[in-house]
Amino acid sequence: MGKTYKIACIPGDGIGIEVIAASIKVLAVLQPLFDFKFEYTDLPWSSEYYRKNGRYMPPLPEALATLRKHDAIFFGAVGDPDIPDHISLWELLLPIRQGLQLGSNVRPSKIFKGVKPPLAGCEVGDLDWLILRENCEGEYCGQGGRSHTGTPYALGTELAVFTRFGIERHMRYAFELARQRPRKLLTLVTKSNAMRHGMVLWDETFYDVAKDYPDVKWDKMLVDAVTIRMVLKPKSMDVILCTNLHGDILSDLAAALSGSIGIAPSANVDPERKAPGLFEPVHGAAFDIMGKGIANPIATFWSAAEMLRWLGEAKAADGLMSAIEHVLEHGPITGDLGGKANTEQVTQAVISALKQ
Ligand code: GGG
């Protein structure tokens, strides 16, 4: 008899609800095939919940205590056309990431067979990256303020906070993941020429940590220069280690270069495994297509595969990835990848591939 895992499920908003529902169908087929069981707790924390209760989730200590009773969190998306994005994000996703100290956000990108990337000459194998985005600090720490509001002198500050603890924890995890990959390459990304405090702390911490991983080959680049390298020399990179803000931006670029943000997954984890990981597609609620049934569910399927790997169910993760790869190569595919299929058709195709 296989293991049973407790999964907190937060579909959230917009297409998050649609792609999580599609993933639950796929995971229902996967469980007996690979002899494991998921017990879901459905948590309705969302913009709808906010409209009814004046908050996106219960008070933070209570919400975190609920999440901690689970082995993993499966998250869809947050965002609502009628609610400012900084409210929705700061009421739900960021407090969970920070409250559980999910210090690393792992965002893989690769070119799959059958997916046409936007760059001419870029083929399968040319782009296979793991973006390691620091996930609790930097410009997203929530520190700052406003004054002179409503006057011509209105101002706002957004403080970036970097701690040796947070940086080192994240860097060690990046090196651990880099040494498990065939090429064992790591690129440190900062802006330590212009930002002379926190970013220099990143550099100094990096030099210390790198000494413990002599088997990993590394280089470092400024974030502006790395965008050029990602476009012109994608094969020269493997693991990309970066700050919260830089990783947020670079992972969208990576998703676009690999074909579509509709296939980009992410894993928010505490490298020390003291909290359940949170697994979610990189994309948001996508107001433009929500409710139409045409969202690409592949990013969420791939996030589910990352969740299974994190839980120790490697065979199930590999099985799901093979089914995803089969569908990306042979279709059907959604509009963002140049196809005409809807969410349900892609879901059923992945289920059929699993059963083969
Ligand atoms: N599925 C992820 C989601 O809803 N993302 C919304 C968003 O804006 N996230 C910003 C971030 O990842 O920091």
Instruction: Enumerate how many helices there are, as a single number.
Output: 12
Helical proportion, percent range = 40-55%
String of helices and strands:
EHEHHEHHEEEEHEHEHEHEEHHH
**Which homologous superfamily in CATH is the superfamily of the largest domain?**
Isopropylmalate Dehydrogenase
The count of domains is 2
Enumerate the distinct ligands: glycylglycylglycine
Which CATH class of the largest domain?
Alpha Beta
Instruction: Please summarize the sheet with the most strands.
Output: 10 strands, mixed
Tally of DSSP β-strands: 12
Question: What is CATH's topology name of the largest domain?
Answer: Isopropylmalate Dehydrogenase
The CATH architecture of the largest domain comes to 3-Layer(aba) Sandwich
C-alpha Rg (nearest Å): 20 Å
| Strand arrangement in the largest pleated sheet | 2-1-3-12-11-4-5-10-8-9
Mean pLDDT score, rounded?
Answer: 97
Low-confidence stretches: none
Distance between the amino and carboxyl termini? 23 Å
Structural class determined from secondary elements: alpha/beta
Structure description:
This protein has 356 residues and is of the alpha/beta class. It has 12 helices and 12 strands. The chain has helices at residues 15-34, 47-53, 60-68, 85-91, 93-99, 164-179, 198-210, 223-232, 244-257, 298-311, 314-330, 343-355; strands at 4-12, 37-42, 72-77, 104-110, 128-134, 144-147, 155-158, 185-190, 217-222, 239-242, 265-269, 277-281. Strands 2-1-3-12-11-4-5-10-8-9 form a 10-stranded mixed β-sheet, sandwiched between helices. The protein has a two-stranded antiparallel sheet with strand order 6-7. Helix 1 (15-34) runs parallel beside helix 12 (343-355) and helix 8 packs parallel to helix 9. The longest helix has 20 residues, at 15-34. The radius of gyration is 20 Å and the shape is globular. The mean pLDDT is 97. Glycylglycylglycine (GGG) is lined by residues 77-79, 89, 93, 248, 280-281, 283-284.
